[in-house]
Please model this.
Amino acid sequence: MARKKITLIGGGQIGGNLALLSAQKELGDVIIFDIPQSEGMVKGKALDLMQLRPHDGYDSNIIGTSNWEDVKNTDVFIITAGIPRKPGMNREDLLDINLGIIKDVATNIKQHAPNAFVIVISNPLDAMVYAFYKVSGFKKNQVVGMAGALDSGRFRTFIAMETGYSAQDVTCMVLGGHGDTMVPISRLATVGGVPVTDLIDNKRLKEIEDRTRVAGGEIVKLFGNGSAFYAPAQSAIEMAESFLKDKKRVIPCASLCEGEFGIDGYFIGVPTVIGSNGVEKILEFTLTNNEKNELSKTLNAVKKTVTETGL
Ligand code: A3D
Model:
């Protein structure tokens, strides 16, 4: 069986880690694509990762390029092209610059690999994945945004830190937009199947929810320049792996809703089945009235940013 081809559009902080993880997990051969001014940087990263092969034992080929011809026959793209936040910025502040970049990337991917599955990471996420979908004209199962996987991972981390139990055994989901209005669903969170609401008191749980909502900003402030990259990279790799291996994992992702949860025509974080057909299904469940209100607030925030794209 031929090796799969994973192309990373943007070879910066997240892109470099995506390349490392793709190779270490032997997901396939890896192309790191960036703008001509950064071609040397991605060629250098690719060569460095090739030279890690004797130590790590993976056989993936990794190349860096600025040539769109090289992305032909890609199975899965992961897009981080754009600029990240600086302290004091919110994700929406990135809209103008990153929208231009996503439009360019969508046009080129459509031309060179029209059947690929595409995972968007660039911010503001819910608007960028929408823009990619509109400009590329791809089918809805081919396009998805990575945010809920990371936001849920952060929620899991904080619950694990609070209880002292393994993060691996914490399951939970965060729905909605990738911004401060996101909706952590504490009611359904468990540690090894035990409801979190029986392990952590309500006041503390609310504080953990609040920390989750601004967890990205907490890291931006600490860095002083740029945003998180290790956990975002692994979150997207989980999605890519589920597609490449037809695992049918259920991961909160920004998927196009067409009636699910009463939402129509927007990409927003919902539990999504990812398999070899890309986005295969959105799993709906009954929300409480309070959760419905929260979801409606986050949808309004997403709609506002999407409107600003003019698409
Ligand atoms: P960074 O290290 O700056 O890398 C971005 C790369 O994109 C740079 O190497 C640029 O040269 C490259 N680039 C710019 N324009 C193009 C283009 N037209 N074609 C190809 N490459 C291009 O940033 P990063 O990796 O830290 O973050 C990338 C993006 O992810 C930012 O928009 C972040 O805000 C976003 N991000 C999203 C999440 C989510 O959970 C959704 C988390 C963390 C970061």
Observations:
- The mean pLDDT is 97.
